Amino acid sequence: MKKRVAYCVSDHTGVTVEAVAKSVLAQFPAVEFSLIVLPFIDSPEKAQAAAEQIAATPDALVFSTLADPALRAGLRQSHARLFDVFDLVAPAVETVLGQAATPSGGHTHGMTNDYESRMDAVNFSLALDDGLQPQRLDQADLILVGVSRVGKTPTALYLALQYGLRVANYPLTPDDLEHGKLPDVLLANLPRLRALTLSAERLAAIRHARYPDSRYASLQQCRDELATAEKLFARHALPVLDTSRMSVEEIAAHLRHP
Question: In DSSP terms, which residues pair with 62 in a beta bridge?
Answer without folding.
Answer: 7, 82
